[in-house]
Amino acid sequence: MFNKNSIVKAFLFGTSTVSALSVTAANAEAQQDAQQALDVERIEITGSRINRTDMETASPVAVIGAEQIAKSGFTSVQEILNVQPTAAGMSLGATSNNGSGGSATVNLRGMGAQRTLVLLNGRRMVASGTGADSSVDLNTIPVSMIKSIEILKDGASAVYGSDAIAGVVNIITKKDFDGTELKVEASQTDKGDGTSSGFSALTGFELAGGNLVLGAQYSNRGEIIQSDRDFVSPGQSSYVPEGTLGGLVPDGNGGFIPRDYGYDYTKQSYAQTPNDLVSVFSGFNRELDADTEFSADVMFTRRDSTQQMAPQPAAIDLDTSKLDSKWSDQFQDENGDVPAELLYKRRMSDAGPRIFKQQTDTIRASVGVKGYLENDATWDFSATYGRNDAKDQVENSIHAGNMEQSIYANQDLWFSPEAIANSQLMQDGISYVEENEGGNEQFTLAAGYSGLTESDIGYAVGVESRYESGFYTPDIITQLGESTAAQQDPTAGNYSVNSAYLEVSVPLSDAFTVEGATRYDDYSTFGGATTWKLGATYRFTDAFMLRSVLATGFRAPSVSELYAGNSGSYDYLADPWGNAPDPQILVNYTGDENLQPEESDSFTLGAVWEIASGLSTTFDYWQFEISDAISRVDVQNELNQCFEGVQASCDTINISQSGDLSNLTSALTNIGQQNTSGLDWNVSYAFDRYRFTWDSTYLLEFEQDGVDYTGTIDGNIGGYSELKSTFMVNADVTDNLSAQYYAQYVKGMEGNAWGDPFTTDDVIYHNVSATYYLGDEWNFNAGVKNLLDTEPENVPNGNDMDTVPSVYDVIGRTFFVSTTFNF
């Protein structure tokens, strides 16, 4: 699938010299633990089905341990992953107020959340959110149950199937836990808002010859209003509470005058969205006999989340023949003619702010049996079921049809600058609560067999069968297009896939090992897909090793991509004709049942070097190429091209060369392409009581659909900084006191907002914390995130607060404390 000879040559060099693993300090600790267990057990590493005694495989894996998570004050999986240098583009999280539905996602390499596979203990998680989702809501995974997070920074479709194009996030939970752990935590900004708190309990004990782990977690995240941050400029929307007719505002004396002011929507919009999470989970492990193990785990999470935006902006085309002449005659042209229609726009402050609420229930249950044979082989069987049910509502939505009739019936009221009583809106059926529901379901059966021959050839074979379904049903008023919000059709569909895979690891010498894998997936929607992987490791000395992987991958179209009907979205766009009065322009999004899978090629090449005792470094080159990508065209680019006279661009997004944007459409297609490459570099140094880790990603290229986004930032696609780094220092100050310093660096980027270029400066966030241990049972942790209260960089076409919240911190200096008690 590769079409670049240089890449193939690089691989041929790599298989004789080989590639590298990007490792954090936690990786080094994990490798030491694995080395101590060499004679005890063989373990499964993320990215391979073969049980191994060595952590070092041909694929780059980074590990984040529970201790590091706790010391950093992270309270969500999304927050943990978003600060990693490998994260780019744009992802959803606590600061995503517009259109997130309360979900949290991870975006490895900036290639899209739908291209990162999320596993729990090596098995798939059900897609989750408000319905017919294509990615996992990371809120569903409680932090208190996490032992470690493994990030595979390489394509892994040959091992795991669809969605693993950009990499894999495998969350490992605590097992074989003995005792009880209680934790209480809280945080607040130095502005006195965003107050958050949480409590978790974990207990493990022997039961029926096995180990049972039970846990529960509750967390509450407080809200922050956008206008409460000094860097947020007042909004200037053309939709004002007094209303406009034909672009003019009422003067209070029966006439209209030009509008010379705007509406500040930041005073009612959230910068940090509140949510409540309740999770309960359990795991059970038991030896059925000397050669057979049984395991089971169950997890349930209830999420109640809220977003808030300024009151609904309503736009109604009024028939002037139905208006009293005292109003319509004021809009006569020089010939005395009155337009057939006049646009009436009003910020519906009379009804109150738009309040988006979601209640999602996600359950996942998995059972497995694993057996050990005399020839050092193992077999396993597992069944995993996941379901997500969601109800979401929008308070203070506006019924466009009823509003139009009320305007005709009460013209003196609507064409005056006075507020309209909410009771009047309710009486006329204008203000209502929008009710939507949706869900996702997944069921997977898997069986595998792995072992080691007398020649030390490792192998793994297996089969899987998976069923996926999803639906989303918008409120009937929204479906009929009678709301002032965008019209949306329902989504519903399902598919099934049957798979078989083979993986081998062949040691050609004591130093040189070649790995290979292939997988075939047969989908009910489009047919079959075959992927493969070829990698190798070469160890020159005990201290220096090279490794490389060449692989193909694919991503099957999701339920929402296949079966979604029209869905309107108000995107921030620049109208080159100047016809649009507002930067938020309606774009109609559509799906396609005939979509085909995306295809990808990936390549990694690097080195691992233990320079001296306690000092090690890793260096990796990586490259990904996606063809037939399921994506929407860059609407802004097509608008610009159409304005320049390119008719094909006009046709692509369904507009005219004169700038008629009334049917602006962005359909999903397989015409997309994505090419990205870069370098990962890690340095770890530990001596005495100190541990230093520096981790960086340098982006060489990110090109999508022919547009180069390298080193750029944009409100619609996020940020692609050329250099992102983290630096961490851990110090055991005394036997009872440890301290941590954690810094995150983001290199400045360039952008273009409505034809005007801009740049952002380099940003460094400083975070400090300290932990005091009262023996082995009790500890206290306290710290400050964003110690210097560094403000986000201004992005004029940002998706919120004139910035990109998933790239920059919009919360500010935050204090956190926690205490943990074990008994």
From TrEMBL:
It is a multi-pass membrane protein. Gene3D superfamilies: TonB-dependent receptor, beta-barrel domain, TonB-dependent receptor, plug domain. Residues 327-787 form the TonB-dependent receptor-like beta-barrel domain. Belongs to the TonB-dependent receptor family. It comes from Thalassotalea litorea. This is TonB-dependent receptor. GO terms for cellular component: cell outer membrane. Keywords: Cell outer membrane, Membrane, Receptor, Signal, TonB box, Transmembrane, Transmembrane beta strand, Transport. The keyword Signal applies. Residues 1-20 form the signal peptide. Transmembrane segments: none annotated.
